[in-house]
Amino acid sequence: RKLKLTTTNDDEYNSLIFSWFKCSSSNNKPKAIYFDARGAAELSRVLFKVGDLEFEDFRYPIVTKEGGGFETSEFSAAKSKNEFAANMDRVPLLEINGQKIGQSKAIERYIANKCGLMGADDVDRAIVDCITENVRDIKDKWGKIRMMGGFGNSPEKEAAMSKWFNGGELSEWLVKLEKSLPNSSSEGFAVGSKTSYADVSIWHLLRDTFPDATVVSEAEKKAKCQKLTKIATRLSDLPAIKNWIKSRPKADKDRHS
User: Fold this and answer.
1) CB–CB of 202/231 below 8 Å?
2) How far is CA 2 from the centre of its chain?
3) Which of 16, 27, 109, 244 gives the lowest tally of CB atoms within 10 Å of its CB?
4) Strand residue runs (E) in the chain
5) How far apart are CA 34 and CA 42, in angstroms?
């Protein structure tokens, strides 16, 4: 589309150029690509919402097969065409103007940077990175338990989950995570006095990762992690997160990270 300018005034010219550029850019929303599940993409989706950045939420369907198991035929077809090469034939992916970015943490950091959620300076940025990596360590521990022997249940998995929630393992990790937060931050914030990627990561861990909110609450009480709880509570009250929880696809409700 050609832009026809009919003014010789510099200010008006610059205003027209800016308006045209903004209009053109708005048609190229980032495209978040994943399955119709929360999983490794949900934190990125929440960051988009907290940062008030529009995005396309593209989801490959997951179909339950008769006799058990799942089918992802559309994903498999796209994979056969090398559409996921940027993430070594996996998702999530983030596509920006045709350029694809893989790895969930690289995607999350891109969004956090874009939305001003990485702190006030380079030191803040490093601390935010540190905290989010600490959160990832806890999620990785949980992921190994959750996927023990596959999606089904087993006596071994049930014993491991009981030890994680009721035996104090989660509480022990929350104590360590609490200690990793800087003392200089304002109440309800992980780093400084503004919402950051670290806050959203902590909220996601405590309020949107585990299947039973009651046992997580008990683990928080046992850990006496008041800083973490205040951060998660504050984030839960943000309109952006409240609205996303209400509006996100219902298929997500039983597929936890």
Assistant:
1) yes
2) 39
3) 27
4) 31-35, 56-60, 63-64, 70-71, 93-96, 99-102
5) 9
